[in-house]
Amino acid sequence: MLRLHADCDRDRQTYFILLYIINYIIFLFLLNILFVNLIDFRMAQTMIFAIEEINTNESLLPNVSIGYRIYDTCGSRLSSMSATMALMNGQDDTTLIMYCLFVLNKKDYPSFFRTIASDYHQSRALAHIVKHFGWFWVGAVNSDNDYGNNGMAIFLKTAQEEGICVEYSVKFHRTEPEKLQKVVETIKKGTAKVIVAFLSQVEMGNLFDQLSDKNIKNFQMIGVEAWITSESLMIPNSFHVLGGSLGFAVRKIDIEGFADYVTKEFWHTAFPCLQREGNSSQYGLNCSRYQDLLGLKNYNDDVTEQRYSNNVYKAVYAVAYSLHSLLQCTKKGGCEKSLTILPQQVKSQDLNGSIHFKPVGYYDASLPPDQRFVLNTENIIWAGGQLEPRSVCSESCPPGTRKAAQKGRPVCCYDCIPCAEGEISNETDSNNCKQCPGEYWSNAEKDKCVLKAIEFLSFTENMGIVLVFFSLFGVGITALVAILFYSKKDTPIVKANNSELSFLLLFSLTLCFLCSLTFIGRPTEWSCMLRHTAFGITFVLCISCVLVKTIVVLMAFKATLPVSNVMKWFGPAQQRLSVLAFTLIQVLICVLWLTISPPFSYKNMKYYHEKIILECSLGSIIGFSAVLGYIGLLAVLCFILAFLARTLPDNFNEAKFITFSMLIFCAVWITFIPAYVSSPGKFTVAVEIFAILASSFGLLFCIFGPKCYIILFKPEQNTNMLSIFHRIS
């Protein structure tokens, strides 16, 4: 409540001061709301200031003065465009200078001159700043007008080109509170932590109020020049919503002398008493009532920051310098006033300048693509804390995985699928997994190709050790039998079985046990040839000895006459030659095999994908079949002859044991074939070694086991066989 005292001069003075302030506030309110925007009014003042400054400049346009006619500002979109179109339709000789963001086709309007960067560059710059920080999942809000719709359309197109996904793109107008509520709900339900707000200052204020009321915070706001530097939005209560916002602003430049010009015009207009026209006593009388207000005469902090004013200032000077060039002005001679100047000529004389955005970086569309965007993040205070925010639909897929798009969602939403066996991805967010080369396989993490493990039957593994043990065990048993037979060489049981063939058979069995060792170890070219040829020759030598022994038994007991001389034609010499002949045939087969297509070391990568089976390829299947076939032929022949001799006297039953040994031998090698074909990797070699050892042990125990039993445990039977020995002899 205001108290006034008529008898007090000071109170009367205070009354007038307060009354003036109230009237001035009402004036500003009417000026700003009902008639013209105060900021736009400041733009007009900037233009007038620049024109007056140019007209007082004797070197720029010495004898030419620039005038002006103000139609409207950008405060009212409808009235601005109406005045602009009326101007351009009515007068073709006028140059149009605009500091606001209307879009005109320069081909249709060649005299159109823009003094502020196009929203095309700002929209693209917004996409670049989002991509720079790796925010590939963002929300978008724009004003539902030409400014917001055009700017957002460019941003969305650029975002798509840069691989940025937009979760939602919504818009509203300041006169549509229902749409604003839907926008707020969309932001609240969304998962994007970064919001690109292509809004005017008024609509950004409306959105901020709603976000603040509903306590929706910790979003990283990306703004445009319309509101990013607005001091009216930057209040203490807005920090939880707008704190850490990033955006692009027009470069801030102070126009020298403008602040003093504005304040001087205000005081001279609002306080006519300051114009000293008349005596000093009249001046003091008129201004005494404003004594308290006059103390604020030099205060100019209320002049708004001159970001857009600078564009107006530069625009007027651009026209002046164009005229200076076209009118051929000189400081002494002045300007040629008789020249006719077209509006297009004024525009063509101007130069496009780059716009820098501060304080943490800039975007300059005139530079090469890799130099347009520069950003220094050290001084940025991020929304919601000190850590740089993350805004992605799906977290990055680590090496070893690939991205698989989620059905019905943007490309930025994906699942991370581990690479298949033998495939890798060695970079983050890989779209596809790469197949490893032939001899390589993926590691456990699927991020690197490593050499495949090479597998072969080695001496150091358990299976190899077991097989080596049984092989050497067979050699040892054979050696003990040979020693026993040698120590009892004069006994009937040793002499009766042709001791030479017995010792040759024991020697061949020793070679059979030892040849199994050639199948163990890393296959090489020489070891592959040795193992198969040694196997074939030693087994033929062994079977040849058994076959000759069987023939000897048959000849000894099937002679029809006691005085027959059959044994003379198949004596020891013939027996040795028979063994040699049977063996030489196998040697010849092996030589042909090694000559035509020998076995060789082979890396088998077909059976296992994750490892290489190092094995011996047979080279020629026919050669290997011939070796096995010849051994089988001798074994079958030996089995048949031994079977025919099964009715020999019980006190000399070697033929029966040969029959059993051949039966075991044939059974082992018949079952070997399917087992050999079906066994994988090193187990193929193990099956072959097992067949060699099993058949060798069968021959050793079936043929020599009973004899060793008689020699060691039944020595009386060894002497009773003397008559049989003489008969065979």
UniProtKB/TrEMBL annotation:
PROSITE patterns membership: G_PROTEIN_RECEP_F3_3, G_PROTEIN_RECEP_F3_4
Every G-protein coupled receptors family 3 profile domain range: 463-719
GO MF terms, alphabetically ordered: G protein-coupled receptor activity
Pfam families per record: 7tm_3, ANF_receptor, NCD3G
CC annotations in GO: plasma membrane
Keyword Transmembrane part of the UniProt annotation: yes
Keywords: Cell membrane, G-protein coupled receptor, Glycoprotein, Membrane, Receptor, Signal, Transducer, Transmembrane, Transmembrane helix
Subcellular location: Cell membrane
Main localization of the protein described in the UniProt heading: membrane
UniProt topology in membrane: Multi-pass membrane protein
InterPro entries xref list: ANF_lig-bd_rcpt, GPCR_3, GPCR_3_9-Cys_dom, GPCR_3_9-Cys_sf, GPCR_3_C, GPCR_3_Ca_sens_rcpt-rel, GPCR_3_CS, GPCR_3_vmron_rcpt_2
TM regions (residue ranges): 15-39, 465-486, 501-521, 533-557, 577-596, 617-645, 657-677, 689-712
Family: Belongs to the G-protein coupled receptor 3 family.
PANTHER family in the cross-refs: C-FAMILY ODORANT RECEPTOR OLFCD2-RELATED, CALCIUM-SENSING RECEPTOR-RELATED
Protein name listed in UniProt: G-protein coupled receptors family 3 profile domain-containing protein
